[in-house]
Protein: Mitotic spindle assembly checkpoint protein MAD2B
Amino acid sequence: MLYFSSATRTQYDAILLYVEAFEQRVLYDVPIHMCRHPLLCEYIHSMLTGCRPWLLRGELENICVILLSKEGRTVETLVIEPGWSATFVEEAASDEDYQLPLVQLEEAFRAGMVALVATSAPNTGERTDSAKPNTFRIFAQTVEDATNRGTAVNDDSVSNSWVLADPIWCEDQKKQKEIFPVKSIHSEASPIRLNVYMKSEEPASAMIDKT
Structure:
């Protein structure tokens, strides 16, 4: 979960959110910025700790860091889609004492972190005040699997299957988005699959051209 935590904080720093609360550190031999604010660290840590069981069971579809303007409008979204390779799942299932290949995991996370840090941040100085990021939210989406009663929507466990969607997330899903790939890791040598990309609302001119 350290990678997801650092990726989340890197996104905040890249757009000049809470700059004074960050200090420079090194993770996976990559220079990054880590947050020093206790409440912000607690929020990120508690959110990602809650996602850990889903990640280990392959039930976590993605983690989204949504940057919001002062008016609460979505400005930009960082999406991290994690998963385990088919080879890793088979080997782990066949051996109770299977150990995680830590070296390969670290290499995958390093590649993902380098790409994220190298991704050019938007020039917030050219934006109007209503289009500048002011705060953020973290959302986690899980996989619905009919073969897994813990994730499937069914009549026997409606209370566990249905969760009220956040209004910000619902409104955000209605908008046309541009997607900017950051990093994709799908090597059989790596135990983890990773897709990292950015989403931003399409300019009004682009939406007019499509109609």
